[in-house]
Amino acid sequence: MTYFFAGENVHRDSLGTVQTNRPGDLNLMTAGRGIVHSERADPAFRAAGGAMHAVQIWLALPTRTRTMHPASSIIPRRRCRRPPRLPACVATC
Fold first, then answer.
1. Is position 93 within any domain?
2. pTM, whole model, 2 decimals?
3. Is there a domain that residue 89 lies in?
4. Which residues contact 46 (CB under 8 A, 6 or more apart)?
5. Dihedrals φ, ψ of 72, to 5°?
6. Does residue 43 lie in a domain region?
7. What is the mean pLDDT of residues 21-41?
8. Measuring CA to CA, which residue among 54, 75, 49, 64 is closest to residue 2?
9. I want to staple 75 with a disulfide (CB 3.0 to 4.6 A). Which of 22, 26, 55, 61 is the partner?
10. CATH of residue 23
């Protein structure tokens, strides 16, 4: 899981997914049986310069699901919301 605070990158993977991650977007990827991916700064962002800040969390799948099909998806910022009593850096989707 990757959450962007600032900057942009382009995610590409062996499933054919190509998506640009922007601040507030949540990128979810499940390796399952195996997936190859890259995350690179968007060429336009790299040319313009600027800071890139994100957090990435890796979780181990339970044994029974480790051989599932790989998956990749993005939850755009507009679909994420912040619970009213939590700090601004906490988002739920």
1. no
2. 0.69
3. no
4. none
5. -150, 135
6. yes
7. 87
8. 54
9. 26
10. 2.60.120.10
